[in-house]
Amino acid sequence: MTKNIVTAQKSDSCSIAKAKKAVPGSTARTQYLYENCRWMHVSGGEYVRDEVKIGIERARLYTEAHKKSIGEPEIIRRAKCMANYLENCSIFIMDKHLIVGDHCDAPDVLSLYPEMGYFAMIDLVESDSMQEEHRDEAREIAEYWKPFGLQAKCEPYYSKHELAISYPWAITETPPFVANYMSCAPPYMSVLEDGLDKRIVWLEEQIASAKKKIRSYPWNGPENLPLLDKIDVWTAMIIADKAVIVWARRYSDLAKSKAEDFPMGSKEKNDLLEIADICYRMPAEPAKGFRDAMQSKWFCYEICHSIERYASGYAHLEDRLMWPYYKTSVIDKTFQPMTRGEAIELLECERLKVSERGIAKGRVYREGQSGANDLHIVTIGGLDEHGNDACNDLTNAILEASLNIRTPEPSLMFRYSPKINEKTRHLVFDNIAQGFGFPAIKNDEKNIKQMIEYFNIPPDEAAHYALVLCMAPGVGKRRGTQKSRTEGGGAFCMAKPMELAMHNGFDPSLTKIQMGPETGDATKFKSFEEVWNAYVEQLKFTIALHFRNRDVCRRAEMRYCESPFLASMDDICVEEGLGAFENKQYPNTWSDPVSMPDPINSLAAIKKLVFDDKKYTMEDMVNALSADWVGYDEMRKDAMNAPKWGNDDPYVDEIGTRIYDLVADLYQEQTQYSGMHPVPVPQSVSLYAARAPRVGALPYGRKHGEVLADGGSSPYMGTDKKGPTAVLKTMSKIPQDRYKGIQLNQRLPVSLMRESGEKGFKTWTDYMTAWHSLNIDHVQFNVVSNEDMLAAQAEPDNYEDLIVRIAGYSARFISLPKNAQDSIIARTEQKF
């Protein structure tokens, strides 16, 4: 009998801008689901809807199993914790949903992850969102897990000073063992093709083979002893896989029970009986049709990203991963036959299901991802391993579903090549023109080439890449996908070391302590190279600390916070008996230098004003920065008028190229756990606004607290004065092949993109042709008018559906902090 069933089904929550607007959705079902969608986005670190609360169930059930499993191998304890949750958690099915499965106690209730870190846990427990009736129990659970969590396992390897400069997200992102923000890219293909039952048989065979080897003559300790750890890993995988099957079949039972409430032959009854059939078979068995595959993928997604532990993202190449099942159902109609319109409806349901996925993550990323509930990025498009257009009818259906349902999540990333057929490229243009801010665009040839040549990925695997999060590609088939953000991900601030270089490593604007190394009294610098060298030393210190934080946390993940179900999905992990975070066969080493144009513009201003024009001294510059430019109006005006990145100006572009080469060089000097040198991926999500108060005045005229440069290469807001061609020519001077991704934000006029018919598509295509020919990695577009954004600031309730691109994701404009809103308004609208 199904336990802990939540009977509440109907939503009374908000809809987006119902008045005077047609409800998005191509069918009555998706229109209903849109109107009743329980949006989970945040603003200023808090959940926008008051109904959203933090629940106790996951924390309680994980704690219960953890206490009972004392003394067992840690990875087996992890599996038993999840099994206890899946076998006993509350489940529910909302009205008219075609995709089922949730990770929370009830609708509008979020889960806690006490094993991920104490600070994040206690912050949520003491927040207004915590269910009051469970607050005391949650406090007890937080204290119980304090010595077992990632934070406690990592902090002993740092001095008090290192922790003090790491935690505020000033020079580096708050360490992952504190931030409670991870990501992964599950290898869905293995489960869709095999089913979990088959993989359990494989795991049992691996254990039997290992035990036979251990018992064989002669004894070989070096060979046999490692098999003991592998047996533990395989055992944990089996526990996890069987628990997932039990959980899915509980949904089958619930769907059957709900079907009894409807008359024979009714649409509702038939839908629920089909859901019951699918949930009994998925993910235990291989997927056969499109509904099978969508449900199996969602079950695995919820486990890997929301139940086994929290991980951001929605990494998969959806149009190719799901194509065999779409073809079976929509084109061949040999299993689960459906019309193309029904398939698009199912894709719209998926977008709404993602929109309802709420996560109780650490505050730093609740603040850093305003207007969204998480980073959900789906990859589509691109070329195959032979260099041919790999788009299919599912590619187009995904783009059409996005146009229909108009949700900001999941975001889309399109792998662009001029070889892509015009119909698909036009649908990409149509989505961008509507102002969604997506699809973002990646240069497909450039990215496939880098995966093959730098990361040694086989061509067929490289051609199947998907973005792990906003910008970085990773393999996406059955083997070696990225399992943790400590492998690839994380960020540090390029602007803060510039501030520190001006103050001998002291942080005058935030912590008021010595944050970086002493690099000399900047007032006494006599040459530009002295300034440059001081910045380089601050940057070296920052980068080394950043990567140390990641690998120290990964070691703790491997020992204390493994993900056996995620590991069981990966063929390499099953073959080798490896935990998810041990596997390093396909390293995907990258991280994000945030706001790279800030030091470029700063160094250009110093060079111009102090050392070339000699209008000011370094003492003048340091004093102006210490005063936050107050009393230095003329000097600030000169600094703001100094050459700026993004105008095809050799004076500043030469400094920019030098900065980009420097960062790539410094990354090559680091070596991560996997043995690989990381590759930079400059981007910022909304950190350029959220973290701006942590960076003091900068030499190019920016005052303390004003937004930083958005993206990874975008011109600072409003400073690109010479049109889109000049911007692209500046971008082309970056050593693009030394970077895994370089975020470029551009803003295009509504009059061109939405109101000029085919002229807009032709102009955009010409732009994309120039962009591609210059080997530029990335571009994403805002198409929204100042009039609409200013009106939304004045009357936010009338603009709840206004979507904009931040830097890496799209979000509701009215949920952004004021400084982020203003920065988007100030971005240059390019003219053609």
Terminal CA distance:
65 Å
Q: What's the gyration radius in Å?
A: 26 Å
Low-confidence stretches: 5-20
**Helical residue percent band:** 40-55%
Number of strands: 16
- Give the structural class: alpha/beta
> Averaging pLDDT over every residue, what do you get?
94
Biggest beta sheet attributes: 5 strands, mixed
**How many DSSP H or I helices?**
35
| Order of the strands making up the biggest sheet | 5-6-7-14-13
Shape: globular
Could you characterize the architecture of this molecule?
The protein has 832 residues and is an alpha/beta fold. The protein is built from 35 helices and 16 strands. The strands form 6 sheets. Strands 5-6-7-14-13 form a 5-stranded mixed sheet. The chain has a 3-stranded parallel sheet with strand order 10-11-12, covered by helices on one side. A two-stranded antiparallel sheet has the order 1-2.
Keywords:
832 residues; alpha/beta; five-stranded mixed sheet; three-stranded parallel sheet; 48% helix; globular
Short précis:
It is built from 35 helices and 16 strands. The relative contact order is 0.10.
Which secondary structure elements does this structure contain, and how are they paired or packed?
Layout: H1 28-35, E1 42-43, E2 46-47, E3 53-54, H2 57-68, H3 74-88, E4 109-110, H4 118-125, H5 135-145, H6 150-154, H7 160-166, H8 176-179, H9 188-194, H10 196-214, H11 221-259, H12 267-281, H13 290-307, H14 318-321, H15 323-332, H16 340-355, H17 363-368, E5 377-381, H18 393-405, E6 411-416, H19 422-433, E7 440-443, H20 444-453, H21 459-462, E8 466-467, E9 473-474, E10 488-493, H22 496-501, H23 528-560, H24 564-568, H25 571-576, E11 590-594, H26 597-612, H27 618-626, H28 633-641, H29 650-668, E12 679-680, H30 687-690, H31 723-731, E13 745-747, H32 750-753, H33 758-773, E14 778-782, H34 786-794, E15 803-805, E16 810-812, H35 818-826
Parallel strand pairs: 3-4, 5-6, 6-7, 10-11, 11-12, 13-14
Antiparallel strand pairs: 1-2, 7-14, 8-9, 15-16
Helix pairs in contact: 1-16, 2-3, 3-11, 4-5, 10-11, 11-12, 13-15, 16-18, 18-19, 26-29
